[in-house]
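input
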Amino acid sequence: MREFTIMSYNIKHMNLIFKNNTIKPSEKQRARKIAKVIQDINPHVLGICEAANSPQEHKHFIDNYLSGSGYQLAQGVSRGSQNLVFYYRLPFSIISIDDALSFYGPWEADIDEDGLKERHKWHRKPVEAVFEIGPGGPRLQIILVHTKSKAIFSVVDLHNFQKISLANRKRLVGQALKLRSRLNQLLQEVHPLPVVVMGDMNDGPGLDPFEMMTGRSFVETAMGSVYQPSGIFHNALWWMSMDSELKRTLWTADFPDPIVRHPLGYRHRVWIDHVLLSPDMLRPSNTVRYVMDSGKVGSKNKDSREASDHFAVYCGIEIE
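output
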């Protein structure tokens, strides 16, 4: 039995730490801290959200800050200034990437069930990649996701804050329904591959007040319906919520209150980075399996805080 690690990491504005395909002198310390986060977990497959665009930039980062790691870059069509890419190392090899790009084009969906369909699009289309684990070995499909943020970055009054917040939730629900329809397609194939969906989903468990207005959230919609239990994806970090001590650490980003500043500087802690696994990966007989209770959040130390505004999430998988 062989065990491997897969990881998702939102590296805040990675695109901005480069100039002329090299790390800016002012960003070298941060680059070392980003690399330390990656090296400490040492994943076999790393999905990066808010990644740099240029392959030359990634090569420079790997060669100079992850030297000896053996990482290679898998990159589809650029998603813009906040790109989505994979780093991977042996025994993983890339079979395909972005083959389903056209599926994620603009679409229509009735979010609030009023009989009217709204037009939706992804700001950053998910990246699908198929990896082979060892020559002729089993294959694993990974979908890397970075959804639209719920946050409002412009100056607005309270009325517009509520209006935009609700619109952002509807946008997330539309994206979740589209992603879920893709997962249903993959699960219904004649010989389905094990599937992992991971990334910065900008949503956590339960419904916030604006999601209550739509009756849905991104993560739980993407994971699947209780009325189709055989298709529900497993959240790799869920097990942590069952332990009172670990539950306190089950968050992947924090931020100040958008409306009022707390006098003691308290911040909202949110679990918005996820690793979701197809149901077959929980079966003991499956070729590629999730290592039960292996999902974790990366260390929350000073260096990792200065590396990014998100913490990495990862889990173990195993094959015979």
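quick obs: The first strand starts at residue 2 and ends at 10.
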